[in-house]
Amino acid sequence: DSKPTVHVGHPGWGEATVTMTAPGVADLSAVFNQAPIDRLLAFSVPHIAAEIGQPATLKGEIEGTVSYPVLPEFLSGRVELEMSSPLGQFDVQAEGAGYAWKVARLDAKAVGTTLKASGAIEEDGTVLADISLDAVEPRRVAESLSQWLPAVGGLAIDGGPIELRTRIGGSLTAQDVTATVKWAEPVIGGQRVESLAAEATGALDDLEWKAFASVSKTSSLTASGTARPLDGTANGVWELRAEDVGELMALVASPS
After folding, report:
1. What is the rounded radius of gyration, in angstroms, for the C-alpha atoms of the chain?
2. Who contacts 180 (Cβ-Cβ below 8 Å, separation ≥6)?
């Protein structure tokens, strides 16, 4: 028996096919060949469209099965897409079915920052994800974020590269998080220190954290405590060590 099918295509963007396989269930596939998506982004997410600039293009493939209403037993798919714009690039490769999904690769590059991630959700709800972020120029990142978070612009962030590494495990209802960050010669509010390192472990709603800052060759700052990111609260104990108090006072009094 023939099944209702819709096929569209154009040399300027690619082709797509949708086939109804059962009431409320459809197979779909699409191939994009440098498809222009400026108008789509401007209509659906105008603020993001203004930030990423033009031209924005999409290439890659999508195939899968969907249903309405959405039911896990009729849900499967594979995605391999790359979006390019003047701001940077976004690349994702993922596949799955039902409750089990895997992101083999998610890469993004923009404003001197590289984000890489991979992970999976198993049928039993088990989660595993690895995320890394490297910001070569924190100042550029802060300037970009200040458009949505004006308070960031007032921090006068600058300095050397930032490395962030995060692993998320556990389950969808109870995640375990381990995160580390290293920042070389950070500058905040015009004040420069030699280095900053921090780490956090625990659940998303209850983290333990500690940090170490090398303020100068003779001074350091250590701290540790707990945080509840979902509530926006944190507490900790801070300890400052200075072998040369005069040097430390001069450093605090003189912006970089």
Report:
1. 24
2. 163, 164, 165, 166, 197, 198, 199
